[in-house]
Amino acid sequence: MTDTALDMSVETGAASYGAASVKDYVALLKPRVMSLVVFSGLAGLIVAPGHLHPVLAAVAILCIAIGAGAAGAINMWYDRDIDAIMARTQKRPLPQGRMDPDEALAFGVFLSVASVVLMGLAVNWVAAALLGLANAFYVFVYTMWLKRRTPQNIVIGGAAGAFPPMIGWAAVTGDVSLASIILFALIFFWTPPHFWALAIFRKVDYSAAGVPMLPVVAGEAETKRQMLWYTLALFPIGVAPYFVGVGGPVYLAGSIILGGLFVLSAIRVLRSEDHKPAKQMFTYSILYLFLMFALLIGERLAA
């Protein structure tokens, strides 16, 4: 689509905004992404030393969920032009003209501020500051600065999605420790191979939208090599929670198996000539992160 055609499509949508439904507002929060964010935040909260009243724990998780959804809403507001081009995102409320962009922005900003204030007042201000930092990083650093400018967008911008377990930890302890930094690093190093696997089989979309994802800029071969390096770097980070007392022997065994399968997935992608292994790796990457945190949670609750 040419720039002129894109401008015309945006203007046409702007002239005929529909009445947004509850479903549209929910979609604006990126619920599928939010679910993994909330789960990792819950893991940080559960494995942290100390105790938090169940009501306050629920409030902390709610704030993490609202904050993540708010950042997603602002991201959709800012990226509505390229979302209209990409097949994966064309049916979102803003590209479809079902919602006024100003309403989407106001919705996201209100929820973001509310989540941080509520976290600070109800839980503690360290967790609130981390939540605010995560939201600001995702909106200003990743969405507005990096995403359209550098193929390292996911590498640096991935830090935003790595904050939730650290926030959950801080909600209980009121501080940041080596263990919570390791949980942060687990998601940080997981993010590039996860998103690059998606970018490989969605390369045409990203290219059409002018987003310099690594497969578009450096080619698939280089992307696959970097995916392997990141999974190799992730392996020791994945087992590290055991050595700082956050995970036990069950987690250690599980993390070795899951990490090894992640490396094998990257090797399969590197050797493949088609996109099927990349699609499979993308699916597995989600399962990997879920199971890693599930092991931490299950082992702590069983103790």
TrEMBL record:
It catalyses: heme b + (2E,6E)-farnesyl diphosphate + H2O = Fe(II)-heme o + diphosphate. It comes from the Bacteria. Gene3D superfamilies: UbiA prenyltransferase (1.10.357.140). GO terms for biological process: heme O biosynthetic process. GO terms for molecular function: protoheme IX farnesyltransferase activity. The chain crosses the membrane at residues 33-52, 58-78, 104-122, 128-146, 153-172, 178-201, 227-244, 250-270, 282-302. It is a multi-pass membrane protein. It holds the Pfam family UbiA. Its EC number is 2.5.1.141. Coiled coil: none annotated. Its main location: membrane. PROSITE patterns: UBIA. Pathway: Porphyrin-containing compound metabolism; heme O biosynthesis; heme O from protoheme: step 1/1. One of its GO terms (cellular component) is plasma membrane. Keywords: Cell membrane, Heme biosynthesis, Membrane, Transferase, Transmembrane, Transmembrane helix. It is found in: Cell membrane. Belongs to the UbiA prenyltransferase family. Protoheme IX farnesyltransferase subfamily. Converts heme B (protoheme IX) to heme O by substitution of the vinyl group on carbon 2 of heme B porphyrin ring with a hydroxyethyl farnesyl side group. Carbon 2 of the heme B porphyrin ring is defined according to the Fischer nomenclature. This is Protoheme IX farnesyltransferase. It comes from Aerophototrophica crusticola. The gene is ctaB.
